[in-house]
Design a protein that fits this description.
The protein has 8 helices and no strands. By secondary structure, the chain is an all-alpha fold. It starts with 8 loop residues before the first helix and ends with a helix.
């Protein structure tokens, strides 16, 4: 099964911000940039994919500001949260095998596995 290509990081950020700006003027590029601690010029370059994604701290601020899941924003920016990094580093081979095995698994099957792990009686 072929999956459609995910939007670029910048396209994703711009779409989130512009969707919120339609309803709320506080989501202008300038105001979002200020609340995230970056310059409007930098945020504009990010949204146009002219700059690489920022560090984890700014990614998390952007996620909260744009009401996006921080793990999604981090992943789109090529990073992972500290708690996920710690879990992977605790068992790197096991997690690498698991992620590779799940890579092409249908989403409904991954959700079933997740529920089993969360609800399982070990």
């Amino acid at each position: 099964m072929q999956r459609s290509a995910a939007p670029s990081f910048g396209t994703h950020v711009r779409a989130l911000r512009e969707a919120r700006a339609v309803e709320d003027s506080r989501f202008s590029l300038r105001q979002v940039a200020a609340r995230c601690g970056v310059t409007p010029a930098y945020l504009s370059r990010l949204e146009r994919d002219e700059s690489p994604p920022p560090g984890a701290e700014v990614l998390v601020k952007l996620a909260h500001e744009l009401q996006e899941d921080p793990d999604v924003m981090l992943a789109m920016g090529g990073k992972i949260s500290d708690d996920l990094r710690a879990a992977i580093l605790a068992r790197p081979r096991l997690f690498a095998d698991l992620i590779r095995a799940l890579r092409d698994t249908p989403e409904h099957a991954v959700l079933r596995i997740l529920r089993e792990v969360r609800d399982g009686d070990w």
